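To whoever picks this up:

The parser on our side crashed when reading a file containing two proteins. I've narrowed it down to the boundary between the first structure block and the second sequence. Both blocks are reproduced below exactly, byte for byte. First block:
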Amino acid sequence: MASSQHWFQAFKAVVYAALFANVGVFMWVADDWLAPKAIDQIGWVIILAVFEWETGRLRAGRALTRISAPALLAELAGYGCAVYALQHHAVTGNAVEVANSIAWLTISALIWVDLFRPAGARGPIRTLLRLSLYAVALACAMWCAGTGSWLDFWDAVIWIICFFVIELNIFGLKLPGLRR
């Protein structure tokens, strides 16, 4: 059991290292830290970091009772960046990016609900909604692959994997040999 937990921690380290490399590439490609894509990346890194920290405090079956003020402020800053990018995508008429942004913001809202109200998180309605939203994110990734936007495809896939890790943190999902 301890070995499985070590493997999961190593998996998370590799996933998060790949994410930071991905963000670095986006910053390099954007060549402008104020570009909407760069701001979006920064915002989601902040959101993911807060989710990782908050879900690390969870105990199986228990809800969070509060979030620290610094974590809340950081997360709100992250959402500000994500909404800024969504607004940019809407103005430029990029329907795929709009759909992707809305899906991720809604996934984040569900995670918040699950952190503070875990009862029903595995219920059929929230499960169907969660799976539908991840399907939208995956469809957007596949669209990027289909148009030859391989960097955007890789970006989408790594974010899906990162949020899968957060889902594992929240629900303590049972992977073979992994217990929380």
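<<boundary where parser fails>>
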Amino acid sequence: MTIKFCNQCGHHVEYQIPESDNQLRAVCQKCFYVQYENPLIVNACIIEHKGRILLGKRTIEPRKNCWNVPAGFMENGESTQAGAVREVKEEVLADVKNITLFGVYNIIQRSQVHVYFRAELDSPNYGAGAETSEAQLFLPEDIPWDNMAFPVSVTALKRYVEEMKTGNFTIEEKDILIDYEMLRQFDR
């Protein structure tokens, strides 16, 4: 419950269940405008090139100095796939091709939906973008699992590595409940 003021008239809001609704909402006490709080969408892309996976080392919090697949919050006015491609360009300065949906991961406790795509490098050109200190292609056995940024990325990436062995990629939709004990290892 984070909304304090109406984005229509600026008056104070109170959380209540509006008529014909079943959820607490931020309701303006002057103009009665109802403001909705919705989950954030994160777009991510697992990029393969000649049996290696491209990761970037983060220069920003959270999880500064940890590795991750290119990922970030979706912007208004873009599709999930366009957002993933944008994140790839911003974080590892790469162009990708053969982009397909790989998985949708619902992180309910964080009110986030992570949409993962898989793709191939369009050319062997890549580098560190504004939010990364380095970009590197890793063989599956060399992925720095103990220094990965986010548990959801580990989940998706481990599945990808497993499916690489057969070349039979599936699309998965999964709810991920945060294991706060496991999460402590990611909070350095």
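After patching the parser it read the second block fine. The longest strand covers residues 96-107. The chain has two domains: 1-37, 40-184.
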